[in-house]
Structures are given as C-alpha cells and as structure tokens.
C-alpha cells in the first residue's frame, strides 16, 4: 500500500511513519509544513528509507496537495496535520482555523477530485482517514460517563472547536460526494519525540533542569492517556479493517489526574537517575487555563470488539518508557529547546 500522511513530522505523525516503515511494507509519502512542531529528527532512520518520501508543504496549498496526489497516486490519505496545543489556540486562534478547518477543506477537495478520477477498482480500495481528538466532546461531569462514538460535540477551546469543524467537514464530504472516509477520536497521547510544550515532556525536562513543575489550578483534571505507538497501531488497524463511514474512539484505559501524572513522573525520574525529585517541593500550582475541561474518558469498546485492537502499554509501562527515552535522547530535546532543530528545514 502507498499512503499519504499529512503532518508526518509531528509527534503522532512521525510515530505512524516509523511504525509503517518498521512493521509493514507500505510506501509513505510524508507531507508536512514543518511548523515549530514539525521535526525531521523525530523520523529517526525512517527519513532515509527508500520507502519514505518527504515533501515540505502546506495542506492549505490546494495546488500543491493536488500535485502530490496526482504525482504519487496514494491508495489512502491519513490526515494528521493540525495545530494541536490548547494554550496556543487561546492566545491565537487564527492559525488553528487556517490549518484545522481551511486545511482540511483543501485536502478533502483535492482528495475528492483525485478519487473521482480513479477507476472502479481503485475507488473500492481508496480510503481517507481523518485523525481527530476526544476534546471535541467537551468534558464529562458524571464520573461514570465515557465518550462514545455517538457523544454530542461540545468543544470548549478554539483548538477543539476547529477539530470539531474538521470532523463535520469530513462527514459532509462523505455524505455529499461519496468520499470513502474513516474517522478516529483519540485521547491524550504521550511518548517519545513529543514536543516539550505538552504536559509530560514539559514536566520531565523542567525536573531535569531543576525548574518548578507548573500545574494548572488544583491539578485534578483527569485525562485518558494513550501511548503514541499504541495509537499508531490503532490507526493502521482502522485504515485496513475499519468500515467506511464509521468513527472509532481510541483510548488507553488510563484515567489519571494531572497532579498524579506529575507525581508519577517524579517517582520514575528518581528511580532512573542518581537524583531525588520531590514532587512536593517541585510542583507549583498556577492560574488555571480558561475553559479548562475537567475530565476526558474514552470508551474504546467499538474498536476493540469490531477491529480487535487493544493498547499494549499500561500507563505505568508507557510512562516509564517515555521517561527512559527522554533520559537517553538528550540531544533530540536539547535541539528542540535551543531551536537548532529548525535549521534542518529543507534547503537550510
């Protein structure tokens, strides 16, 4: 199979690229704009694989996207390109609307025109997989409640609102134009190569540098944590065995409050190094984020029963692997922190 992955130099996208090149015989066309969150170093050895083609470009560039499709003729599109940081969306929503809404529209239109020119057999095999988030559902106030594939949308932030918009566009293009789509809504991802603005790597690196660990509000916000490699496996399973037009929730079965995530990280760091990281001394409670959702929790029954996918990592095993990776890959995150990773843009 030949697949086009948008956002393939980002956190989840690069994990998917690495997985496909290591575990399948697929050919990958990787289209990424290389914004601040795009990092070619996150691709590891995949960057030199003969089955990997990297193209630096913007999904909002309709002419470029159309050219990539007609030139490389993929059997599937996996759409992961997105602005994804809630805090950034609060400070400046325009980039989120442009990439997540307009970019998805341009990609859908290019895919639609490409699909319409395929022969019948090719159309029967073509898929458009749109990767979204559980944040489109808002938060859960009932402690027994879980997000299902039929939960009503109630986005709280500019980020989640733009992702909700993109989900609606994908479903509309399926209904109106017959584009064979699949959708996934995942819980919070974590693991190697995650940009340090996100909670887990931010806390790891702050602790290693002896800086305070800033926790929003009281730290009791609950998230369902999904190890990124488990997510990559799930996406491949959905693409290959999912039912066209269906949505699949992907979760890790790991509901943990933010404050406990930070405490666990401090314990693991103390075990893995010669230093002691005392959470009580390091944690610093800061003003809560505007509109901060209280709890997310995914019901992943559908993907487990229908497609046979289950996460391989528990939160304990995944978190330990993540800490060990950051300890062993100092060069990667130091280049991110000092900005030198951005010098590896094509042509520089």
Can you tell me about this structure?
The strands form three sheets. The chain has a seven-stranded parallel sheet with strand order 3-2-1-4-5-6-10, sandwiched between helices. Strands 7-9-11 form a three-stranded mixed sheet. The chain has a single domain (2-344), classed as Rossmann fold (3-Layer(aba) Sandwich), CATH 3.40.50. With 348 residues, it is an alpha/beta fold. The chain has helices at residues 11-23, 62-72, 86-91, 94-116, 120-125, 158-177, 199-208, 228-241, 258-272, 279-282, 301-307, 315-328, 330-338, and strands spanning 2-6, 27-32, 52-56, 76-79, 127-133, 181-186, 188-190, 213-216, 222-227, 247-250, 255-257, 283-286. It contains 13 helices and twelve strands.
Order of helices and strands: EHEEHEHHHEHEEHEEHEEHHEHHH
- The end-to-end distance, rounded to whole angstroms, is 32 Å
What is the CATH topology assignment?
Rossmann fold
Uncertain runs with pLDDT below 50, 5 residues or more?
Answer: none
Helix and strand topology:
Elements: E1 2-6, H1 11-23, E2 27-32, E3 52-56, H2 62-72, E4 76-79, H3 86-91, H4 94-116, H5 120-125, E5 127-133, H6 158-177, E6 181-186, E7 188-190, H7 199-208, E8 213-216, E9 222-227, H8 228-241, E10 247-250, E11 255-257, H9 258-272, H10 279-282, E12 283-286, H11 301-307, H12 315-328, H13 330-338
Parallel strand pairs: 1-2, 1-4, 2-3, 4-5, 5-6, 6-10, 7-9, 8-12
Antiparallel strand pairs: 9-11
Helix pairs in contact: 1-8, 2-4, 4-6, 7-9, 9-12
